[in-house]
Amino acid sequence: MPTFTAPDGTELAYHVRGVGEPLVVLPGGPMRASAYLGDLGGVAAHRRLVLLDLRGTGDSAAPADPATYRCDRQVDDVEALRAFLGQERIDVLAHSAGGSLALLYAARYPRRVSRLALITATPWALGRPATVEDRLTAARLREDEPWFAAAFPAFESWLTGGSDPDWSAVAAFFHGRWDDTARALEAATDEQTNAEAEERFFGAGAFDPPALRTALAAVTAPALVLAGEVDGGPRPELARVVADALPNAEFAVQPGAGHYPWLDDPRWFTRRVRAFLDGRG
């Protein structure tokens, strides 16, 4: 397991899967270890995935200062990884909350990004989190699923301020296919997530949306913003806000996909991401 040192001295780890040109992968959660990403549905057959364990997650050490869990404080960890890999520029793929980190990285180091793929990334950094109604609207698309009648009341209650539900009862809303693979991913969530870091990631002061929009307007690297058709966080309409903030972005909606599109239809996902990374649109 390779490691490198962040600017503040924290030892960070990454995992390598696959072959080909490197693709730096930033996990979501927020602050979930990169293990859940697997081989990204087969992308590792075409690119060498460099999956970063963010500070305090997976095999990376916890920082001396917990305040550095905040999203903007981790931007230079990504830059340190690029330098450690010896790459003048990097292709970056980010999932979910990792998309905010990727946007901040591209804004701060625009000349270091060659291509940027943002997968089901809610535009937190642009001041646009998913709302309760976003999630309920997406959930209602699943009313024909056999589990919907039992799961929806618990999901709605949780989103509107009720007690935390049995997560296994509502997790299906985050997946286009609620099968054994999806259940296994959900079962590992708690053990892979740093709860303290999760609370701090979106802490006060992490984002300055107007300044970020201005900076992103100067990012010329090609970008792919990919949303899941039935994802509630973000819904496709919200994910498009990210694409609109980047001058050279293409937008795609994966049919039938939820928040983890590489699980819902690996072939579709891999084909679309590979085409983008290869410059074939």
- Uncertain stretches of 5 or more adjacent residues: none
CATH topology: Rossmann fold
CATH top level class name: Alpha Beta
Give the mean pLDDT. Answer: 96
Strand order in the largest sheet: 1-2-4-3-5-6-7-8
Number of helices: 12
Number of strands: 8
Oligomeric form of this entry?
A: single chain
CATH superfamily, by name, is Alpha/Beta hydrolase fold, catalytic domain
Following the backbone from N to C, one meets helices and strands in this order, namely EEEEHEHEHHHHHHHEHEHH
Number of domains as seen in the coordinates: 1
The CATH architecture is 3-Layer(aba) Sandwich
Task: Walk me through the structure.
The chain is α/β, with parallel strands linked by helices and 281 residues long. It has one domain (3-131, 193-277): Rossmann fold, CATH 3.40.50.1820. The protein is built from twelve helices and eight strands. It has helices spanning 75-85, 98-108, 132-140, 148-159, 167-170, 180-187, 189-192, 195-201, 209-216, 236-245, 261-264, 266-277; strands spanning 3-5, 11-17, 22-26, 48-53, 90-95, 113-119, 223-228, 249-254. An eight-stranded mixed beta sheet has the order 1-2-4-3-5-6-7-8, sandwiched between helices. Helix 1 (75-85) crosses helix 2. The longest helix is centred in the middle third of the chain and has 12 residues, at 148-159. The radius of gyration is 18 Å and the shape is globular.
